[in-house]
Amino acid sequence: MPKQLNFQLTDDELKLVEQAMQSDQRAAVRQRATALRLLHLGYEVAEVATILAVTAASIYGWVRRWQQQGLPGLANRAKHVPPRKVTASYEQALEHALASDPASYGYPFVVWTLERLRDHLTQETGVHVSIQWLSVIMSEHGYVYRRPKHDLTHLQDPTAKQNAIELLAELKKGRKPALTSFSLWTKPL
Question: Model-level pTM?
Fold first, then answer.
């Protein structure tokens, strides 16, 4: 059986509650003030809970908050937001890492992935963030993901490359190039 609540407001409190019901900008305060007025008029807690589509425990909580804090107690409480783990030093380490080649840190790879970058920053700063959050941080700083281009310049023979450039230039001019040894199969002109 629910406990009985004998709730009465003074004339000044009743005026304050009615004013909050009519003109407060916050919907939660208007709803909770309505609950207090209904209790003052003699409605049972269960009836008020049914009318306002809330639980009886909510009604008891609102009464307790009214008794302890008055009208400000009817407002929603501020949500606790934990402090951000990513500090300015973390962001600075991120920018430094992205401006540097991974090999300069002694890694055997040449491209940063989110996983590699996150693990590196965890090691550097001691702050571990999720890959999704790292992606958000990078987006905030204007970084976008770009696929790496496969480059084979390190495998090219510089002399052969220069000969090919010269041959192409001769062909564009319409001249017959001198015989070269680019192919094993040649045909005299």
Answer: 0.46
